[in-house]
Amino acid sequence: MDTPFDVLGVDADAAPETVERAYRRRVKTAHPDHGGSPGEFQRVRAAYRAILDGDVPDDEDETASWEPAPDRTVDVEDLNYEVLDDHGWTLDDDDLFERAAAADLDPADYGRFAADPEGFLLESAEDEGHVWPFACRGGACANCAVAALEGDVTMTVDHVLPDEMLDRDVRLSCMAVPTTDTLRVVYNVKHLPDLDDLRLPPYPFERSTITDG
Fold it and tell me: How far is residue 65's CA from residue 56's CA, in Å, rounded to a whole number?
């Protein structure tokens, strides 16, 4: 029986920093883009979480077993800011998403997808085939801004958003990690007047993202 420590290739009494180094090494080789598989990638991530949470079987209990729990996902309902004017809607409408659901919008303008609770919101959207705007992907511009109207996210980096935008629940999707099980977000809010000066030309960054690596 493989334990979480076996999955990461470390001893059961390994120091936390050793476990972290092993995880970073294994998660790279297990990734489908680097020769691994989705199943292997999920198992490595689950093993690391189990060690951090202390959810590891006792070595002396021969009947104990460990299997990774099913991956949790975040239910994201998304709406394109560009369609609001066409329908006379605003970000302040309490029933905005109910109106969107009843409006027979194009799937590119309104829909749902499952997001990784430990990943960046922009990457999760892209993984599900959604095309959201972006530029720097480093928290230094507002091209990828979204309004998280319901649910919550935390940003690992934010170099640009003013306090008044944060108070309006505007976040940078390239640096935003979900912290609730459901989200309702309006993407493409880079067109908000207060974000005009915080945008960058997207093309050079999109080209770099496609051709690098």
Answer: 9
